[in-house]
Amino acid sequence: MHKKDLLALFEQVRKGVTTPQDGVKRLESFPFENLGFARVDHHRTLRQGFPEVIFGLKKKPQHVAAIVRSLLPQKSNILITRCQPEVFAAVRRVTRKARYHEAAQAAAVVQDDTIYGDGVIHVVCAGTSDIPIAEEAALTARVMGNEVETTFDVGVAGIHRLLSVRESLASARVLIVVAGMEGALPSVVGGMVSVPVIAVPCSVGYGSAFGGLAALLGMLNSCASNVTVVNIDNGFGAGFVAALINRKRP
To answer: How many Å apart are CA 235 and CA 105, to the nearest integer?
Structure first.
């Protein structure tokens, strides 16, 4: 439930359009709804401006579908990350508004097309192997109401590719930079712009990359002061934080 919806309900009760009893009934599953296997946090939209996001990996399809059914009345957008096709099929039976985004391995239900962002979030990745994580970040930011641009395959092994989009990077409000291997790209990008850079280490690389650990440590040790780092392969976390940074203030 958005703050505006709560205020509207209180106003209806004040004017007598809605009885106090009906108002209580509408809030009876607030702040959460117990489904037995999950307690769906309906208060999160009020606290953070976006509903609880469903992490789909290893969840039963019927459980994810039930959570989506519980969230639908909020009329907010719904995001399911790490969503397998069989999970999406169950969600699709609950709402025809559900769309599967194969590149991001995620599903979304868009019920609100309001732009809440103050500028552009630009998602950059070093190589084509990093695209799934970059797409997860981009989808998260879009579903949260932001204008998003993407630039792929501009790693430091061919730095001229990155320099060709310098102006576009500099005009963004927030940058998300995804890289595997040695994880050098965020430092380079950070030195080119004056906005926050959210670095995402990717589990792409040969043995000594240690499943993204080398990239993570490299990014944590970046000498570019505007670079901050999320967990390995956490495109969702990067997209969520970027959306909060970019959000319009009242």
So the answer is: 11
Task: Answer positive or negative: Cα dihedral of 92, 98, 99, 104.
Answer: negative
Separation CA 185–CA 162 (nearest Å): 9
* Whole-number Å distance between alpha carbons of 248 and 179: 29
Element (H, E) at 200: strand 197-201
What does the alpha-carbon distance between residue 117 and residue 126 come to, in Å, rounded to a whole number?
Answer: 25
Question: What does the alpha-carbon distance between residue 115 and residue 198 come to, in Å, rounded to a whole number?
Answer: 21
For residue 206, what are the contacts with CB-CB under 8 A and spacing of at least 6?
A: none
**Start-to-end C-alpha separation, the chain:** 18
Tokens of 181: 């291997």
- Spatial separation of the C-alpha atoms in residues 33 and 35, rounded to whole Å: 6
Report the DSSP beta bridge partners of residue 40: 33
- Is this model's pTM higher than 0.90 or not? no
Confidence of residue 105 (pLDDT cuts 50, 70, 90): very high
Q: Find the helix or strand (DSSP H, E) in which 70 lies.
A: helix 61-71
pLDDT digit string (tens) for 174-233? 999 999 999 999 999 999 999 999 999 999 999 999 999 999 999 999 999 999 999 999
120-246: CATH number: 3.40.50.1970
Given the structure tokens 């780092």, which residue do they identify? 229
Rg (CA), the chain: 20
Domain residue limits, the chain: 31-109, 120-246
Contact between 140 and 117 (Cβ < 8 Å): no
d(CA 209, CA 201): 10
Phi and psi for 160 in degrees, rounded to 5?
-60, -25
